Amino acid sequence: MTTKSHYKLSSLLFMIWMVTILGITCGFLLVKALFNKDLTGHVLTARILSVCVFILELLYIWLFMTECKRIEASEKEITFINPVFPFIRKTVSWSTFDYYIIITDSNGYGIYDTIWLIKDKRLKSRISGYSVKNLPEIIAAIRLPYKGHPKIKDSKNFSCRFLSAEVPEIFPTDLS
């Protein structure tokens, strides 16, 4: 039996909206910089600002492509599918991971649970409750040992996610 995640439409629309706004801003600044005949220094400022906004947009598009995913979990494997570009998918066997933990994440829009799939004490994949509606169903479909719900500081969360730091091994909370 395959369990499929249901994507929260609000988070998908927010990400698409952000990419669109950044693209329009970058385009406006670039057009203004290229076609402005005034050479008093504003052209250089607009070009620099345009490049900065373009780099920010590329970063956001990269995050959109890697963090937005629909999940299909079966008895033998888990598949991560990009909801906008469904041909971008990654299928991984459950044996690839050692265990999973659930951490509490937060952002400017609320607090939510996130599943971390761990291999060799390092975070290999994550499933965010911010973008998945049916997280309890996904948790029930996971075929890995559960190692708890640790309290991880934001700095450690960042280093585990982006710097490939080791996930703490001591989990002080209960295993219920």
Helical segment count: 4
What percent of residues adopt helix (DSSP H or I)?
25-40%
| Major sheet summary line | 4 strands, antiparallel
* Cα distance spanning the termini: 25 Å
Major beta sheet, strand line-up: 1-2-3-4
> Per DSSP, what share of the residues sits in E-state strands of 2 or more residues?
15-25%
Average of per-residue pLDDT values: 77
SSE run:
EHHEEEEEEHH
Gyration radius, rounded: 20 Å
Total number of strands: 7
Based on secondary structure, the structural category is alpha+beta
**Shape annotation:** elongated
Low-confidence stretches: none
Write up this protein.
The protein is an alpha+beta fold and 176 residues long. Helices cover 39% and strands 24% of the residues. It has 4 helices and 7 strands; from the N terminus they run βααββββββαα. It has helices at 9-35, 42-67, 135-141, 154-162, and strands at 3-4, 70-73, 77-81, 89-93, 99-107, 110-119, 122-128. The protein has a 4-stranded antiparallel beta sheet, with helices on one face. The mean pLDDT is 77.
Explain the layout of strands and helices.
Blueprint: E1 3-4, H1 9-35, H2 42-67, E2 70-73, E3 77-81, E4 89-93, E5 99-107, E6 110-119, E7 122-128, H3 135-141, H4 154-162
Antiparallel strand pairs: 1-2, 2-3, 3-4, 5-6, 6-7
